[in-house]
Amino acid sequence: MSTGTEQLVESELDTQEAHAHHGPAKGISRWFLTTNHKDIGSMYLWFSLVMFMTGGCMALLIRAELFQPGLQFLEPAFFNQMTTMHGLIMVFGAVMPAFVGLANWMIPMMIGAPDMALPRLNNWSFWILPFAFSIMLMTLFMEGGGPNFGWTFYAPLSTTFAPPSVTYFIFAVHMMGISSIMGAINVIVTILNMRPPGMIMMKLPLFVWTWLITAFLLILVMPVLAGVVTMMLMDIHFGTSFFNAAGGGDPVLFQHIFWFFGHPEVYIMILPAFGIVSEIIPTFARKKLFGYSSMVYATSSIAFLSFIVWAHHMFTVGIPLMGELFFMFATMLIAVPTGVKVFNWVATMFRGSMTFETPMLFAIAFVVLFSIGGFSGLMLAIAPADFQYHDTYFVVAHFHYVLVPGSIFSIMAGVYYWLPKWTGNYYDEKMGRLHFWLSFVGINITFFPMHFVGLAGMPRRVPDYALQFADFNAVSSVGAFLFGFSQLLFIYNVVCCIRKRNQATDRVWEGAHGLEWSVPSPAPYHTFTKPPKVD
Amino acid sequence: MNLILSAKNLSRICSYATVSVLFFTVPTVYADWQLNMREGVTEISRAIYDLHMVIFWICVAIAIIVFGVMLYSVIYHRKSRGAKAHNFHENLYVEIAWTVIPMVILIGMAVPATGTLIKMYDARESDLDIQVTGYQWKWRYQYLESGVDFFSSLTTPQEQIVGDAEKTENYLLEVDNPMVIPVGLKVRFLITANDVIHSWWVPDFAVKKDAIPGFINESWTIVEEPGIYRGQCAELCGKDHGFMPIVVEVKSKADFDIWVSEQLLAQAEKAKSAEKRWNLDELMVLGEEVYTKSCAACHQASGEGIPGVFPALKGSLIVQGDPAAHINLVLNGKPGTAMQAFIDQLSATELAAVITYERNAWGDSLGDIISPSQIAKMKQ
User: Does A71 touch chain B (CB under 8 A)?
Assistant: First the structure.
C-alpha cells in the first residue's frame, strides 16, 4: 500500500516494448492454450458473468413464482431445483470465479510479478470450470430433474431420497473443488515467492493479503467438501451408511462436515471483498487506510474464527447445551474483528477528500449494506433467538445482504475500478452511476422486506406461502426484477468500455497508489518482466 | 452480577421502547405487513422476543453511530466542498477502544442469552409426552401416556393452491387432525422423523426442533392461553416441504381429557369397521379419498407418478400382479425409498380401500376386492 512501492525502473518500460511482438497468440487457441494471467483472469471474469446471469435468471423465476401466493409458474419439484441451482451457481460459479479472476489479473500486477507462479496449472484450473458447470446444468434435463435438495444438500434428502442426477452433481462438485484448490495453491505460491525485493509481507496491498488468507481457507476446506460428497457417493452407490441412520450412520454428521467446509466457505466469499474495498476507499478518500496492520490482523482473526463456529448453522439440530453455548460465544466473537474492519473504513473516509465515482459508490454501499448483514448475523448468533430465526426468510435476508451488496457489489466495484487499467479506456461514468443507483434501490427493495416476512414466520425454500406474507413478497419480487434487469446496463457499459476509445491515463484515478497503476493503460500483455524497485 | 442486572434492565427498557414505537406494534397476529417477530404465548417465547428486541436495538444504536459518522464524512469531507485529506492513521487508543467496547456489549448480550438457553434445554418433569414424527409430507402425533395416535396433514384443497378457487383465511396453515394439548401443563415433545430431516416449528411457542431420522430430539412448552396456533415445517424435506403445516389446539385440562377419551373411542371404532362387509363401490369411494390424501402427492391423482422420481401406478406390474405383493408394498413400504410403510398410518379399512382403488382405477379394472378383514388380520 505504501506510496514508495510503485517505483517502476526505466528499463522495465524498454523491456515491455522489446517484448511487444510477444503478444497473445491469434485466434481461438489463444484462449484454450493461454498461460497469461491477464487472459486467464479475463476468462474467469467472463465465465463468472455468464454464471451470474444464469443464476440470476433462476432467481427471477423463483421471485416470479413467489410474487403471489398459490402456484403459478413452477411445479414444487422444479422450484426446489431452481433454489438449489441458484445457490450452487451463485456461490461456485459467480462469486468464487469472479474473485479468482480479479486475483489473476491483479495479484501479479500489485506485487510486481511477471505472472502467476504456476501458469499452466492456472490454465487448467480455469478450463475445468466450464465443464464442471456444464455437467451441473445438464442435470436439469435428466430424468428426475437436477439437484433439488438445497445448496446445502443435507443427507438423507440428498442421498437416499435424491434424484438419480445427484451423481453428476457430486462429480461436478469434485471438479469445482479441484479447480479451487489449484487456484488457491497458485495464489499462495505467487504471493510468497514472486514478490520483488523490498516487497515485504507488511507492504502487500490489502487485496493481496485478503486473497492470501482466502487461499489458505480454500486449501483447508475444499478437501472437506470433497470428502463429504465422496461419502454421499459411497452411500448412494456402494452401500455404505455414513449418513443413513438405519445402517448405523448419522444424518447430523453430514451437517457437521458440510458446515466445517461451509462456514469458512462463506468467508472465502467475503474476505477478498474486504480487500477490494480496502483498496478503493483510500483511493477515493485520497487518504491512507486508517489501520493497515489492524486490517491484516482482523482478517486473520476472522479466518481463524471461521473454523470454530460451524455449528451455529445447526442450533436447532439438538446439539447439547454446552456445544450450543460454545458456538454461540464463538460466533458472537466474530463481530469484534468485523467491527474493526468497518470502523477502519469509516475512519479512512473521515476527514478525507472524497469523490464519488462508481467504484466508490459501490464501496460505500458495500460498507453500509454489509454492516446491515453483519447486524442480522449478530442477531442470528444469539442461539435462543435463532430458534425463531432459523430456516426462515430472516436468514435469507441476512445472507443475501452479505453476499449481494457484499460480495457482488465489491466485485462490481473492483471491475469498475480496474476496468480502465485492463482496457485502457474509461467506462461511461454516468451509466456506471445509474447502474449503481438502480442496483442499490433494487437490492434493498428485494431483500429488506425478507427480514419482515422471516420474522413474521415464513420458512425458507417454500414455493407457496400463507396469505399474510403476500404483500412483502410482492414487493421483493418487484425489487428483484429491477435489480436483475439493471445488470444489463453493467454488461453494456463493460462492452462499450472495451470497444469505444476513451483513453485512460496510466494512473487512472487521481488518488490511486500501488504498482498496478505504474504500468501503462491498457496494461501490456506482459508486465514486470523485470522486478520493479520497491523501497 | 452487575452485568446481569444491567442486561436485564436494558431488556426491560427496550421492551417498553418497543411498545412505544408504533412501527413495531402489531394489531392482529395475522395482519399483513407484519414487521416483527411474534411475542408468542409462552414464557420462553417472550424471553426470546425480549432478547431479539434488545439485540435489535443494540444494532440500531451501533448503526446510527457508524452510519452517522459515515454520512457526516460523505457530506462534509468531499472534495467538491474543498475538503483536504488529513493523512492521520493508526491510533492505538482508538483501536483498543473499538475492540474493547464491542467486547463488553457482546458479554452483556451473552449473559441473558445463556440464561434463556439453559431454561429452554430443561425438559425435565413433563406432564405429558408427545412423540412427533415427520413424514414426507405430514406429521404423526403419538401421545405416549394415553396411546392416542394419529397423522396430521394439509387440508387446503388443490384448487385453492393452483388458483381455481378463492384462497381462504388459513390457506396452507390448516390440517385435518390438529395436535391437541392442555393449557398450563408442561408438554414435552419427542421429535424424530421417518424419512428425511424435517423441523417442527410453532412460532407462538418458540419451539423449533429438527426431526431427524434415527434421533429423538427433545423440546417442551407450557402454553398459557387456550387457542389455535399454527406453524410449518422449517427444514427442506423434498417436493411438498411447503405443504406440511402444523396446527396445535390448546384446550383446558377438562376439555383435553374429554378429547382424549373421544379419540380412544374413535380409534376403537375405526378398528372395528374392518369387521363389516364392504362392496366394491363402497371401497372405491373411500379408496379415492384415501388415495388423494396419502398417495397422490407422489404418484399423482392420475396414477402416472413423476418420471424418474416417483413411479407410475397406472399400468404398473405390482398393481396389476399378485395382490399379496401389492398389499405387502403398501403396508410395509420399500426401505431406502420415499415409499413409506402405511401399516400404522391407515386403518385396515382404509388400507383395503386404497389398494382396491389402485387396482381398479385408471381404466385397468381388475375387479378384485381386497377385504378389510383380510388386512386387519395382517395388521395384528
Answer: yes
